């Protein structure tokens, strides 16, 4: 029998062992983690909507009308009018013809990619794509080719030499680096080589683009440019679930073929109605986004002045590159001793030798909150050496 305990011990020695923190209370900048109050800079609640009174009220008001559980899959008797309303709102918000409401972003990627490509087809995936995209590619049983991160020229060569049905999949905003994919160039090369482009905008939705419509909308790209758009509602939207949006025919195809949509119980319909409210908050949230971007600019300026190595990111995801696993853990632990929660990200989430602290900023943070983080980073700079 495989020695699972030895593997766990090896992970501890390599600085790769992971733990769960027990959080009490709502998601907000100040959390109670394992009984200790900490100022958090590691949540994906980019607009501070996870604990917004309007979302909570919408959920509370919906429950008497919809009940709690979804009770059945969408194709049996679980497709509630609340789900349908959210899908219509998502399609309109993203400028797409149609949308499907999935339970999680992971399930959306697994379902869409494995339905839209199969044996005999080829999927092209950015080397730094999220695990859900990687797993969706594997599940499709298509040939998978990974292209260098953001390298459209290399992708064009690979597409040109590959016959048959081709799918190109990329994150819109890369979750561990915080950079934005070259979406316009990707759309052009996919059009030139008759490839279907799928963009997962989980970390751009709500934050980038006009009225928070995402990284695709920021560039003015439409459904013809990016036929399949994936997004999540558990990050900037502050609720739960995910969606895939695109042409009516493709969404109908996913209803027939996406196993993670067909063979799972529908999400609680009350959550769908809360997400409709959240879309309104996102649409009206220019002040929130302006405040968020002011935090990002200040963090980048001051952290760089302290000598920290930052990634080229203009998004709320602001990684501090460390390199070694133990060094990243040590800095994270030192910040926690100062009352701050900033998690260390280590392989296999990121490549070997690229461990980092992943700072994420939220519109719910104040400039005083950010000052606490910056002061602690200044005080702990000695841990990284010269």
UniProtKB/TrEMBL annotation:
Sorted alphabetically, which keywords does the UniProt record give? Acyltransferase, Biotin biosynthesis, Pyridoxal phosphate, Transferase
Task: State the needed cofactors, names only.
Answer: pyridoxal 5'-phosphate
Q: Which reaction does it catalyse?
A: 6-carboxyhexanoyl-[ACP] + L-alanine + H(+) = (8S)-8-amino-7-oxononanoate + holo-[ACP] + CO2
Pathway info: Cofactor biosynthesis; biotin biosynthesis
Q: What is its EC number?
A: 2.3.1.47
- Give binding positions for pyridoxal 5'-phosphate: 105-106, 175, 203, 232
Question: Start and end of every Aminotransferase class I/classII large domain?
Answer: 38-377
> Please, one GO biological process term?
biotin biosynthetic process
- PANTHER family with a match to the protein in the record: 8-AMINO-7-OXONONANOATE SYNTHASE, CLASS II AMINOTRANSFERASE/8-AMINO-7-OXONONANOATE SYNTHASE
**Function, in words:** Catalyzes the decarboxylative condensation of pimeloyl-[acyl-carrier protein] and L-alanine to produce 8-amino-7-oxononanoate (AON), [acyl-carrier protein], and carbon dioxide.
What is known about its subunit structure? Homodimer.
Family, according to the entry, reads as follows: Belongs to the class-II pyridoxal-phosphate-dependent aminotransferase family. BioF subfamily.
Protein known as: 8-amino-7-oxononanoate synthase
Species this chain originates from: Marinobacter antarcticus
Organism classification:
Bacteria, Pseudomonadati, Pseudomonadota, Gammaproteobacteria, Pseudomonadales
